[in-house]
Design a protein that fits this description.
This protein has about 325 residues and is an alpha/beta fold. The protein is built from 11 helices and 17 strands. The strands form 5 sheets. An 8-stranded parallel barrel has the order 3-6-8-13-14-15-16-17, surrounded by 7 helices. Strand 4 and strand 5 form a beta hairpin. Helix 1 packs parallel to helix 2, helix 4 runs parallel beside helix 7 and helix 8 packs across helix 9. The longest helix is centred in the middle third of the chain and has 20 residues. The chain is globular, with a radius of gyration of 18 Å.
Amino acid sequence: MKLWESYDRGLIHASTRMVVPPMATQSGSDGFPGPRTVRHYVELARNERVGLLFTEHSYIARQGKADPWQLGFETDEVIPFQQRLTEAVHDVHPGILFFAQISHAGVNTSEAVTGEELVSASEIAGQGGISRALTIPEIRELEEKFAEAALRVKKSGYDGVEIHSAHGYLLNQFYSPLTNDRRDVYGAGSLENRTRFLVETVAAVRRAVGPDFPVAVRLGGCDYMDGGSTVDDAARTSVLLEQAGVDLIDLSGGLCIYMRPGHREAGWFSDMSRAVKEKVKTPVILTGGVRTPDEAETLLEEGAADFIGVGRAMLQNPAWGLDY
């Protein structure tokens, strides 16, 4: 099966095309991975069919912490704890690619969690309150915090880093017209403006980790909502990301999060992934609704993506695919 074939292009050298996407365990303590965190990822990594495994999103700064149990890469203190996690995963599956995802929640948190005021692209009402718009100097400061966190990811022994710009978190709040009504260079006047924060963050991360460390972006390319971001936006943004030097484009939903309303078919974001693949040569991950290896194989054979993410099915059965 193509699903079990290796992939070797640029900085991405994967033993199979099967990906376990980021899924929250809420097992952290003050941002540090604990024994339950290690057990969870080791169990997933024991599956020799997995080519690429992502951690759940980890906050880059306390201001962007999404929940009390989230993992973090805010300070250097986390590095030895994260090293134990990467060593444990690589011990059970030496050939696996293990990436850490870094994020900022923006308005999708609360002052009760962060101890700080809510910030976003604009003034937005969220479940935890109303955000204020970030200033340009604050945006630049957060770009550097993403870069510092990415360097900690590298020092922790991961094989790559993923920047979270999906599921309605901060970078996605800048990207979506539904949450960005700014009138400056980071504003809603053009796609280039709405993606500027993301593209500059990619550049800052690349400077921090160097040319030989893989950088991925999880792009919430389409909101699937009236007035929101579109499939065409996703394709055009992927071109900008490729030009910025991203090594992997991991597609998911925007403000609709990881579901697509009214869709239950395997690969429910495949309209977006096909549009992106028409525009870029950068490898693309498609996740959403895949339950069986045959479904994943069909999507690969049809050219919908280069990698297929298997999330909930792997949580239910960490031995997924081993009998194929």
